[in-house]
Amino acid sequence: MQTNLASWARDTDLGKEADAILRRCVHCGFCTATCPTYQVLGDELDSPRGRIYLIKQVLEGAEPTQSTQQHLDRCLTCRNCETTCPSGVQYGHLVDIGRKIVEERVPRSWADKTKRALLRKTMLSPLFAPAMRLGQAVRGMLPEALKRKVPERRAAGPLPQVAGHARQVLMLAGCVQPAMMPTIDAATIRVLDAVGIGARIAPGAGCCGAASFHLDAQEEALVQMRANVDAWWPLLQDGKVEAIVMNASGCGAMVKEYAHHLRHDPAYAQKAADIVALVKDVAEIVAPHAAQLRARLPAGTRAAFHPPCTLQHWQGLRPLSEQLLADLGFALQPFADKHLCCGSAGAYSVLNPEIALELRDRKLGAIAAGGPDVILSANIGCIGHLQSGTDTPVRHWIEVVDEQLRQPAGQRSA
């Protein structure tokens, strides 16, 4: 694609990055076939190719409008288009640039700005956990729309003493997962303990930055990224920690991009690159131990695995994850359109509920055809979003493995 960037963009770091990405696009349109919003809305401007044109026009001097902003907002940032693109267009980075520039030039309505700020601050607030516990206590009395956002609370269970393991890893504290679904972290610690790996959370590490980054606060997100680097760095220096393990693929996808987001920061660029090299999804850590665990697990649990976009399109870990689940004895049920987004996408389901619910229901309809006993996934957002539309249990796969490991041998069954 030929470009002619405006003078204000031509010599900036963002302008140069965007120009290099734009020039790789060959207008082929393959991306439209795998774009969830294009499939739902049928509008070219709600496809990757259409949004690329909009961003190109802005960088070449056209004045963005609220319509431009809306089309960029509607993108789920699933990056399915990147998996499809034959030219290697880094659409995800381009739409980040486009959103930042448009946000600076197009004022949002008071209501929209307030909603986004409240979402961001609520998820990061220390009051989120007690508020979630209160919501879970009165969940049965909540309006349906709010009830969908409040998962039933389950006890995390006892944690093992893991300091004695020779192999040690760090986990991310995160922001909403410990409050909404504490069983995921607890299950991760127990399953890793079962294969001789000690897992702990580094003091001072918090939200990965994704919530702020995708809710118009990119500078705030960079502060969160630096705080995590500062928390992890001293613990990595002695070589006793072999990896930073992610059990929420959305967080894993964001942390694996720290090197990109901090590349212009001389104090953090190299540290971020070193840290990214140690970031692993929990499936990557468990996979080499599948045979060891398999001997303790039942066979034939009928399950559908929904691979989050941040797992399959951002990190390319769908094949490994599916093979791991098969190796652990799950009878995975195939379903159509596994590559498509479920509509969760962080705060997207709150900001664009109609599109999100249509994508959710399409996904659940495809999954239901296989009749699974449980739906497995690897990201808290997808799990909560899918669970809000089905009576079939939706769980993180690590939780189910943990529960099966903790069952007495005589009670284990397919």
Automatic annotation (TrEMBL):
One GO molecular-function entry: 4 iron, 4 sulfur cluster binding
Role noted for this protein: Component of a complex that catalyzes the oxidation of glycolate to glyoxylate.
EC nos: 1.1.99.14
This protein's name: Glycolate oxidase iron-sulfur subunit
Pfam family, one: CCG
Organism: Achromobacter aegrifaciens
UniProt keywords, alphabetically: 4Fe-4S, Electron transport, Iron, Iron-sulfur, Metal-binding, Repeat, Transport
Highest taxon above the source species: Bacteria
Catalysed reactions, semicolon-separated: glycolate + A = glyoxylate + AH2; (R)-lactate + A = pyruvate + AH2
Cofactors (names): [4Fe-4S] cluster
Enzyme class: oxidoreductase
Co-factor note (free text): Binds 2 [4Fe-4S] clusters.
Domain spans labelled 4Fe-4S ferredoxin-type: 16-46, 66-89
